[in-house]
Amino acid sequence: MYKKILVALENSKSDESLLAHIAPLAKLLGSELLLLHVADGHVARNFDQLKLAESEEMRADRAYLASVGDRLAGQGLTVGARLALGSPPDEIVKTAERDGCDLIAMSSHGHRWLGDLIFGSTIEPVRHKTTVPVLVVRSAASAKG
Fold it and tell me: What are 72-90's pLDDT values in tens digits?
């Protein structure tokens, strides 16, 4: 059913809740995982236009993706990883559609309307812009509060 699952990672503690759901699902279905992190800092958003050097944050994000990918591959999963630059919702939708993903998996922090305004929300624009099904897993950290 789901041959390729895009897993939107934030490089935060909430990723562990998401991976705890997605890894067993991928194993059960024999799905390939595409780990995606979108760097959205100043350097990342202006990287090509301004011909900037890769930031320390971007290097750390690449290392994080490699580490998570290695860990999941060690569990017998087929894993790819990509660091995208720019707007997280736009890059998630674009990558899922370009790479033929059947499912987008994301974590939720449990913010309400005001929290989304203050902290931002990636889920809403993704679910409105894509035709790919979206699975949202509530972060264990947010479920405690």
Answer: 999 999 999 999 988 899 9
Pairwise CA distance, residues 38 & 36, whole Å: 7
pTM: predicted TM-score of the whole model, two decimal places: 0.85
The tokens of 34 are what? 């595409």
Spatial separation of the C-alpha atoms in residues 35 and 102, rounded to whole Å: 14
- The dihedral through the CA atoms of 2, 79, 73, 60 has a sign that is negative
Query: What is the CATH T-level fold of the domain 4-144, as seen in this structure?
Result: Rossmann fold (3.40.50)
Residue 36's Cβ-count burial label (10 Å; 0-12, 13-18, 19+) is: buried
Mean model confidence pLDDT for the chain:
85
- The answer to whether 81 touches 75, Cβ cutoff 8 Å, is no
Query: Residue length, the chain?
Result: 145
Which residue from 38, 34, 58, 46 is spatially nearest to 120, judged by alpha carbons?
38
